[in-house]
């Protein structure tokens, strides 16, 4: 029997999400007000260790909302990693500002605090550390730099829901935190996001901007230009179900990541990020680096051969400073990011979702091992062939 196709991610939805979503529909409160929305925002704020959470249409709009509310504008600069999903940089551009890319730490794969100061200029307004692939950025030195230079910090926690830095929740450490509930995220409503903060006046500005700028005291009066970034009550209902089930979702994802790490630990040329001692990571996508010299083939060849075996995967993010909308400005600034480039070239994400069985993880890991071994043995055979002197063709014996 042909083994079944393994996608790279899959939302984990149960009868509970169906029931809550159905209740929302039956109530006719399907737009951006309703009981599920209030419940989700208060539960999420509490679970992420903040005073306030606002639901948004996506992680991208959560970022834009935070930056706009913080007053980011034309000519400003923001320090961001280039190793992230493009939304982090795009949100800066939406405000007319410019992302200034800084390299990542080879241990955490997140913004390198020692590289930030050199990138700060009089135009710098803030820093966006991304808690990449569920691992917290080293926030203490980042917050220290922000205080010294009078900058705000927006944590992009899209991939790090409920991760902790030194015991404190990601998204609660900076000026604001942003989250994504896209279909491949730890909690999902298909699309959706949230922005968290502790400051009431910032919450007020973000709420105003989220709702088209409408004055909360005077209906249909619009004192400013806002956006429509509101989460719906139906999406919030699905998220309430995800919140109720979050422990089991996170436990299963963690178990999958542990199994991958155990199974791939001794595969030559496969490097797995080690968690920093202060990190409690969020179990997003299992990721590792493929060193072609030791593994036997390049990351992309591994991905194609996995696909032939019915296993989906995803390459690491292309560094943003290499992408067309940002290439020119990064070049002008002489941006050189060797750690980012290495991760972008070697990194691969493997299937991670709660419904993935242990047997499927073992199938993926043995496929990775076999593909690498296959290439290494071909390489050895080719070397042996090159080193073996060609035998002269046997001469026919002359007749005496
Ligand atoms: C680091 C990071 N930031 C921002 C986003 C944007 O989130 P969304 O896709 O919900 O807009 C994502 C999601 O994919 C992400 O991974």
Write structural notes for this entry.
The protein is α/β, with parallel strands linked by helices. The chain has two domains: 231 residues, Aspartate Aminotransferase, domain 2 (3-Layer(aba) Sandwich), CATH 3.40.640; 137 residues, Aspartate Aminotransferase, domain 1. It has 14 helices and 14 strands. The protein has a seven-stranded mixed β-sheet, sandwiched between helices. A hairpin with a 2-residue loop joins strand 6 and strand 7. 47% of the residues are buried.
Mind describing the biggest β-sheet? Answer: 7 strands, mixed
Strands ordered across the widest β-sheet: 1-9-8-5-4-2-3
Number of helices: 14
Topology as H/E string?
HHEHEHEHEHEEEEEHHHEEEHHEHHEH
Specify the overall morphology.
globular
**Second rung of CATH, namely the architecture of the largest domain:** 3-Layer(aba) Sandwich
Strand content: 5-15%
CATH superfamily heading of the largest domain: Type I PLP-dependent aspartate aminotransferase-like (Major domain)
Low-confidence stretches: none
What's the mean pLDDT score? Answer: 96
Number of domains: 2
The end-to-end distance, rounded to whole angstroms, is 64 Å
Kindly report the CATH topology of the largest domain: Aspartate Aminotransferase, domain 2
The computed structural class is alpha/beta
- Helicity range: 40-55%
Rg on CA atoms, Å? 25 Å
- Molecules bound to protein: pyridoxal-5'-phosphate
CATH class of the largest domain: Alpha Beta
Number of strands: 14
């Amino acid at each position: 029997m042909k083994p079944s196709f393994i996608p790279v991610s899959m939302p984990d939805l149960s009868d509970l999400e169906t029931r809550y979503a159905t209740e929302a529909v039956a109530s006719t409160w399907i737009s951006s007000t309703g009981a599920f929305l209030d419940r989700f925002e208060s539960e999420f704020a509490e679970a992420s260790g903040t005073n306030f959470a606002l639901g948004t249409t996506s992680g991208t709009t959560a970022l834009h909302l935070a930056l706009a509310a913080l007053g980011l504008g034309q000519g400003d600069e923001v320090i961001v990693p280039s190793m992230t999903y493009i939304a982090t940089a795009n949100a800066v551009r939406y405000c007319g500002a410019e992302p200034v890319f800084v390299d990542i730490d080879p241990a955490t794969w997140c913004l390198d605090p020692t590289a930030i100061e050199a990138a700060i200029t009089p135009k710098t307004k803030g820093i966006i550390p991304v808690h990449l692939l569920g691992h917290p950025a080293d926030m203490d030195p980042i917050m220290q730099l922000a205080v010294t230079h009078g900058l705000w910090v927006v944590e992009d926690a899209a991939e790090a829901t409920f991760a902790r830095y030194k015991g404190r929740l990601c998204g609660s450490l900076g000026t604001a935190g942003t989250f994504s509930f896209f279909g491949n995220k730890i909690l999902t409503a298909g699309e959706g996001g949230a922005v968290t903060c502790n400051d009431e006046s910032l919450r007020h500005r973000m709420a105003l901007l989220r709702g088209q700028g409408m004055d909360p005291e005077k209906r249909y009066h619009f004192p400013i230009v806002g956006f429509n970034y509101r989460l719906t009550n139906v999406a919030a209902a699905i998220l309430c179900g995800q919140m109720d089930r979050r422990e089991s979702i996170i436990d299963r994802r963690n178990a999958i990541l542990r199994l991958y790490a155990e199974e791939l630990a001794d595969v030559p040329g496969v490097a797995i990020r080690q968690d920093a001692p202060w990190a409690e990571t969020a179990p997003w996508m299992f990721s590792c680096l493929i060193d072609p010299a030791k593994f036997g083939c390049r990351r992309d060849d591994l991905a194609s051969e996995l696909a032939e075996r019915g296993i989906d995967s995803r390459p690491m993010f292309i560094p943003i400073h290499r992408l067309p909308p940002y290439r020119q400005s990064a070049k002008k600034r002489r941006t050189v990011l060797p750690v980012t480039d290495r991760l972008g070239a070697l990194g691969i994400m493997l299937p991670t979702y709660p419904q993935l069985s242990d047997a499927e993880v073992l199938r993926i890991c043995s496929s990775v091992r076999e593909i690498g071994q296959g290439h290494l043995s071909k390489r050895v055979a080719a070397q042996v062939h090159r080193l073996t002197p060609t035998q002269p063709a046997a001469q026919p014996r002359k007749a005496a």
